[in-house]
Amino acid sequence: MVGLKKDIKKLVQYYINKFDTRNPFELAEYLNVEVMTGPLGGRAGCYMFIKNHKCIFLNEDLEDHERTLVMAHELAHSILHRKQNCYFIRNQTLLLTSKFEIEANTFAAELLIPDELISDNPGLTSDQVARLAGYNAAIMKFKKP
């Protein structure tokens, strides 16, 4: 698992450097990933590979900070699990233990929580760092120091 997190951290840094952004919506645009918003019921989002096209669907009911987290998670699936269909289930996906979900959560954490946020705030707990960034504390268990 440690090696996996390190590799994903490097991959995320590659995309940040290449496109000069941490914004998952901008990255999706650069990577030709179609993003659509609509009613998804209990699902926060999903990634689907349809007829050779990468598509991310986001629930229209998400608040901004949650939308960004879900987008980063689904973007990870579009990069790491290109031909798999994956779903983000609200309030549960950060708790799942499947390999694909751990990888997507790790990608999202590395993208959304800059290392500098941690190093510039040495007195903060990981929960406080997550809240400072605007996300649920559970994301920090996927962040590599």
TrEMBL record:
InterPro entries: IrrE_HExxH, Rad_response_metalloprotease. It comes from Eubacterium ramulus. This is ImmA/IrrE family metallo-endopeptidase. It comes from the Bacteria. Residues 28-120 form the IrrE N-terminal-like domain.
